[in-house]
Specification:
The protein is about 40% helix and about 20% strand. The protein is an alpha/beta fold and about 500 residues long. Helix 6 (about 150-160) packs across helix 7. The structure holds 3-methyl-2-oxobutanoic acid and zinc ion.
């Protein structure tokens, strides 16, 4: 029988500590509900004593999210524990997560204490939390740099005091995978009462090893993993939920499983990214825009012959509709033929050879070849006829004004104008575009990224829209982000039409 790995999500606590990622209570509830639907076992909803906003969010999440355990963080301080309990009062299943630094750095320079006094404080905090709740998790902050013998004494003492879960954080992301694995194994073999608690990993990604360390932790006996969606968190972030869940799911030989519904990973990732205003790097494992995109000829040919030649994960398993084959100068005939077939062109071998030469000429001049380029090359539709051009854009928005946008599009030579309103100038302009094109489109992804840091910077805008179950991608770069956003939207819409 495989063991269950408990997934402890800390997106709303460690993830939310990132500057600029702060959410209001309504947004936190939305994320918590999405995490509940995703199937995580524990949600760390906040650090209640840290601010009235955090306190209120833990209260509200506790009221509406009923399946997972709701957890509140505290220091090893009585007042923190009392406040956490108050914030958790409505939770159906509640956990207090208390702890203290155990590394020589923390003991000497942060806490100005001694190893023995730290054990006393740890035990006292667990016992105090136990007065309020049955489920008490203890964290040994900076366990990654804590001597294993001493750590084992701390763990044994807090389990004896009643801790149900003991968290071994690699707070600074220092450990190598083998080192972290050995640490967990040492605890499993040397803490006499270890079977009375669950050992948890909590890894940070400062050396890019958070996922590897977490998996080593599991292989050596940990049965809870502390993770965040998209790996967001302090500095280089925390272990990402999607990476651990999919590593376990893809490696059927591992003796463990999670109860996360992986088909909701992509949706949850996009929700967290947009609410926290934290763009996902395109090559991010599992959830990056390019995670299932193939661009070299050899790979495209291989994927078209059998997806598993170059994909270890079926995109449907993480809720992505299809892998994408990007047509560039590096694409081969197989990818071109595949795309042309989808567009309804059946070419003989000779026709395809000729077409391929013209395709390469164009691909050398234009990086990405889209469907309308292929149609123009096929001679059915001239490129200029097919294009939709944003001719004019005028927006009215401000603090107390209803955002309104007027958009003029040139479609097949005709100028068409519409005015729309929305919850902001971009939403208003998208409404106007939708009125002109008269198609039902659903915005799936919308990402604005600055290229450098200045306010005069170019904004890159990526848009993904859905129409009749198919996804269309649009891009633009402009110093005016509203214009850039509308251009990217129009770019995507052009592909539908
Ligand atoms: O990284 C860390 O040590 C933490 C603890 C507070 C659990 O986030
Ligand atoms: Zn942390």
């Amino acid at each position: 029988m495989n063991d269950k790995i408990f997934v402890f999500d800390t997106t709303l606590r460690d993830g939310e500590q990132v500057p600029g990622c702060q959410l209001n209570t309504v947004e936190k509830i939305e994320v918590a509900k999405a995490l509940e639907a995703l199937g995580v076992d524990i949600i760390e909803a906040g650090f209640p004593i840290s601010s009235p906003g955090d306190f209120q969010s833990v209260v509200e999440i506790s009221k509406v999210v009923t399946q997972p355990v709701i957890c509140g963080l505290t220091r090893a301080v009585e007042k923190d524990i009392e406040v956490a309990f108050e914030a958790l009062q409505y939770a159906k299943r509640k956990r207090i997560h208390t702890g203290i630094g155990t590394s020589p750095y923390h003991i000497k320079y942060k806490l100005n204490s001694t190893p023995e006094k730290i054990i006393e404080r740890a035990v006292a905090a667990v016992k105090y939390a136990k007065k309020y709740v049955e489920d008490v998790e203890f964290y040994a902050e900076d366990a990654g740099r804590t001597d294993n013998e001493y750590l084992a004494r701390v763990v044994e003492a807090v389990i004896a005091a009643g801790a149900t879960v003991v968290n071994i954080p690699d707070t600074t992301g220092y450990c190598l995978p083998t080192e972290f694995g050995r640490k967990i194994r040492f605890l499993m073999e040397n803490v006499t009462n270890v079977h009375k608690a669950v050992i948890s990993t909590h890894c940070h990604n400062d050396l890019g090893m958070a996922t590897a360390n977490t998996l080593e932790g599991i292989l050596n006996g940990a049965r809870q993993v502390e993770v965040t969606m998209n790996g967001i968190g302090e500095r280089a972030g925390n272990t990402s939920l999607e990476e651990v869940v999919m590593a376990i799911k893809s490696h059927k030989d591992l003796p463990v499983f999670t109860e996360v519904n992986s088909k909701l990973i992509s949706k949850t990732s996009r929700l967290v990214s947009s609410l926290m205003r934290m763009p996902i790097q395109p090559n991010k494992a599992i959830v990056g825009r390019n995670a299932f995109a193939h661009s070299s000829g050899i790979h495209q040919d291989g994927v078209l012959k059998n997806r598993e030649n170059y994909e270890i994960i079926d995109p449907h398993d993480v809720g992505i509709k299809e892998s994408s084959i990007e047509l560039t100068a590096r694409s081969g005939r197989a990818a071109l033929k595949h795309r042309l077939n989808i567009l309804g062109y059946k070419l003989t071998k000779k026709e395809l050879d000729e077409f391929y030469e013209r395709f390469l000429d164009l691909a050398d001049k234009k990086k990405d070849i889209k469907d309308d380029d292929l149609q123009a090359l096929a001679g059915n539709v001239s490129h200029s006829e097919k294009s939709i051009k944003l001719e004019r854009l005028q927006v009215l928005s401000g603090k107390s004004a209803l955002p309104v946008a007027t958009v003029a599009l040139r479609i097949n030579g005709d100028l068409q104008v519409a005015t729309g309103s929305g919850n902001g100038p971009i939403d208003a302009a998208f409404t106007a575009v939708k009125q002109i094109i008269k198609r039902k489109v659903h915005l799936e992804e919308f990402l604005i990224q600055a290229i450098t840091r200045g306010s005069d910077d170019l904004g890159k805008v990526h848009v993904q829209i859905e129409n009749r179950g198919k996804l269309y991608y649009g891009f633009s770069a402009n110093t005016d982000i509203i214009t850039g956003a509308v251009e990217a939207f129009v770019d995507a819409v052009t592909k539908i039409i």
